[in-house]
């Protein structure tokens, strides 16, 4: 019952998380919307495959508790679905690890290459292939029925080792579910960690070098208005001195003409001065508003970009941790199964080790549930903060545009 309740909780939490993030992604920018869609897609798909496998484990547990739930069709269908769930779990882990590798190594081309349509096509191709390939499990599975006194019959399903198709089927199954995903995910995780570490060290070196340059560079004083006034006064004095030196004879008519010209320039009508001041005050007001609003909009635009980068980094860390959990819990059981393919006789101690490794592999789905429950809540909070900053940035830009339009109309 605990497994059933945990599976239903997993399904409910994944579905509610998916619907919540879809509502959020409708109001975000394209880059942040793509990040949200990636998180929704991969966490939802992994939750669905884990739910299928947990449901099969619940059926097997009820059969061990002498509950008459296992019939021959249910047993064959459980083996078929277990193969599908194992394949999809490993290959979807490989898919989102590849997605993060491209996003880390090629961040500019990631939004053009990794689209929502690409993810849907990839998921559809994997689902079609796995349903067709593992239909071979029906032909290599045999069922045996044993009778128990005063209870229902026991139905056992297992793969028949005598059939000629069983060995290539198991080899391909091991190749698709263990060798290719495990080796690829291990290599990609190492590459992502190396790239992030290199980027972090480069940013630290760049920040230290820039701070050192700022300290050692002397401050350059820009000429203020007082210096320009003194320069202009000096030039005027030099000009007047040259004029006085060249024209020693100055008449009283030149002084009178200059005096009359100054009076004409100063004698302006009051209405003209008022119109001139009002016409000049409008663009000054608009420039003051623009200059006062520009730092706010710029700062919030920077915060919105930082939120997008934070959400992308958070997605990378979350999916990197999920793939690491997959590697830790997935390796022992499938490695022993791979070894059993080439050994005709298995000692008893190896069978005991295999049973323990299977229990460790079954714990992977519980670990996925706890991991998603912990990480997804933190991820939702980060996205909520980014949503608030981004929406405030959009409203501030709209308000600035509206104010600028009103000022421009008033000026006209």
UniProtKB/TrEMBL annotation:
Signal peptide: none annotated. Gene3D superfamilies: Rhodopsin 7-helix transmembrane proteins. GO terms for cellular component: plasma membrane. It is a multi-pass membrane protein. Residues 18-381 form the G-protein coupled receptors family 1 profile domain. Keywords: G-protein coupled receptor, Membrane, Receptor, Transducer, Transmembrane, Transmembrane helix. It holds the Pfam family 7tm_1. It comes from Rotaria socialis. PANTHER family: G-PROTEIN COUPLED RECEPTOR, G-PROTEIN COUPLED RECEPTORS FAMILY 1 PROFILE DOMAIN-CONTAINING PROTEIN. This is G-protein coupled receptors family 1 profile domain-containing protein. The chain crosses the membrane at residues 34-62, 69-88, 121-140, 165-187, 318-343, 355-376. It comes from the Eukaryota. GO terms for molecular function: G protein-coupled receptor activity. It is found in: Membrane. PROSITE patterns: G_PROTEIN_RECEP_F1_2 (PS50262).
């Amino acid at each position: 019952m605990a497994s059933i309740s945990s599976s239903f909780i997993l399904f409910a939490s994944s579905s509610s998380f998916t619907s919540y993030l879809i509502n959020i992604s409708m109001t975000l920018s394209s880059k942040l919307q793509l990040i949200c869609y990636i998180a929704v897609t991969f966490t939802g798909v992994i939750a669905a495959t884990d739910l299928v496998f947990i449901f099969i484990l619940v059926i097997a547990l009820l059969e061990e508790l002498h509950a008459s739930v296992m019939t021959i069709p249910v047993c064959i269908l459980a083996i078929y679905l277990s193969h599908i769930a194992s394949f999809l779990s490993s290959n979807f882990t490989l898919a989102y690890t590849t997605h993060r590798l491209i996003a880390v190594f090629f961040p500019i081309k990631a939004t053009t290459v990794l689209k929502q349509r690409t993810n849907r096509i990839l998921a559809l191709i994997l689902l079609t292939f796995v349903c067709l390939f593992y239909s071979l499990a029906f032909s290599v599975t045999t069922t045996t029925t044993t009778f128990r006194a005063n209870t229902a019959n026991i139905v056992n399903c297992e793969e028949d080792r005598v059939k000629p198709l069983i060995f290539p089927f198991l080899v391909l199954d091991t190749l698709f579910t263990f060798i290719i995903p495990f080796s690829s995910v291990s290599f990609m995780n190492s590459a992502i960690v190396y790239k992030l570490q290199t980027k972090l060290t480069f940013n630290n070196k760049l920040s230290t070098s820039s701070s050192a340059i700022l300290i050692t560079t002397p401050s350059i004083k820009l000429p203020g208005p007082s210096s320009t006034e003194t320069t202009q006064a000096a030039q005027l004095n030099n000009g007047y001195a040259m004029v006085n030196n060249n024209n020693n004879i100055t008449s009283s008519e030149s002084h009178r003409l200059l005096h009359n010209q100054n009076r004409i320039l100063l004698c302006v009508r009051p209405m003209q001065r008022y119109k001139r001041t009002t016409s000049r005050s409008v663009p000054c007001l608009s420039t003051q508003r623009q200059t006062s609003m520009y730092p706010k909009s710029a700062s919030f635009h920077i915060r919105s970009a930082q939120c997008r980068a934070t959400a992308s980094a958070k997605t990378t860390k979350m999916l990197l941790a999920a793939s690491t959990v997959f590697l830790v819990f997935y390796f022992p059981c499938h490695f022993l199964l791979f070894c059993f393919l080439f050994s005709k006789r298995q000692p008893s101690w190896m069978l005991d080790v295999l049973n323990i490794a299977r229990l460790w592999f079954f714990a992977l789905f519980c670990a996925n549930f706890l991991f998603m429950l912990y990480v997804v809540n933190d991820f939702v909070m980060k996205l909520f903060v980014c949503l608030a900053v981004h929406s405030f940035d959009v409203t501030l830009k709209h308000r600035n545009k509206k104010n600028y339009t009103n000022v421009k109309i008033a000026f006209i």
